[in-house]
Amino acid sequence: MTGLYRPVNIGNTLRIPGNLFLGPVAGYTDRAFRSICRSAGADFSYTELISAEALARHTGPVERSKTWPLIRPGEGEGPYGVQLFSGNPDALYRAVLMLEAVQPSLVDINCGCPVPKVVKAGAGSALMRDPLLLGRIVKAAVRASQAALGGVPITVKLRSGWDGDSINYREAACAAVEAGAALVALHPRTRAQGYSGSSDWSHIADLAARLAVPVAGSGDLASPACGERMLRETGCAAALFARGALGNPFIFAETRSLLLGEPYNPPQNEERIALAFRHLQLLAGDRGEYAACREMRKQFCAYTRGIPGGARLRDALVHAASIEEYRAVFHPLATT
């Protein structure tokens, strides 16, 4: 496993000290969760996907836009990437210009999201059907980055193709790189698969061997062993943990220890719950206590997987509407 944990250079301006990344997950990778994952060992993090059209339509200071809470860096987050989606090069250009207020370390273009509302807008995995348009969008983002962000890298996230009869990740990746993309991330499922079935890591290995820019791998990274195997088998530069990190931010430190051959002590239940409450407090600071408590129900359900009595806890959590009510739910666990 020697050498599997290593820095990643993206473009000429960004060097990330390690290669275990928190990938974007819609509805989950908000500022609070990204901060938690970075504190727990993630080397880099991305915002959830953000509509470039919504950002570009805003007039006035970006700090007053509806997307402002999504694009701001989290507490202690450090270098991070903003992920945008759009099927319109002009809108993408204007949106990247507006990121001047937050100065992200890179801008990622989502060309893989299979969600119908994104695809219907000609964005996400719809771009896999039009590599020429994908290239134009990357070029627009590169121009905007040079104009407003000091030329920070533009990266893309792809799928293997639209469906099993149109596997074209090579063509899409080459179009992106020729247009200026400094890293390509690949989730090796088709749009038709959604999140079902298994991802085909051989596509990641193929891209890693072909491209002159770093390739990051995504898909089915549910454990540290999966992360180690992806890096070893595919030769990719970085592993993007997404759903595997939900409720388990410790996966980053554990994977790093595995890659480095160092001992690792799994967190005790008390540590898991303490981190979940820290997550809740950060979210409450952003959204207010009531909204945060409603949002954290799904997160706490993930944090309590494997904890004795977890089913009972989850039944109680769906009714908690304040931080004190959350504390009351967990009080019996803390006193046993």
In short:
With 336 residues, the chain is α/β, with parallel strands linked by helices. Helix content is 44%, strand content 14%. It contains 14 helices and eleven strands.
What top-tier CATH class of the largest domain fits best?
Answer: Alpha Beta
For the largest sheet, list the strands in their spatial order.
4-3-11-10-9-8-7-6-5
| Unreliable residue runs | none
Percent of residues in helices: 40-55%
Please, what is the CATH homologous superfamily of the largest domain? Aldolase class I
How much β-strand is present in the residues? 5-15%
What is the total domain count? 2
Q: What is the ordering of alpha helices and beta strands?
A: EEEHEEHHEHEHHEHEHEHEHHHHH
Overall 3D form:
globular
Total DSSP E strands: 11
Architecture (CATH level 2) name of the largest domain: Alpha-Beta Barrel
Determine the N-to-C terminus distance.
40 Å
Mean pLDDT: 92
Biggest β-sheet strands, sense, barrel = 9 strands, parallel
What's the tally of helices? 14
Q: What fold name stands as the CATH topology of the largest domain?
A: TIM Barrel
Q: Helix- and strand-based class?
A: alpha/beta
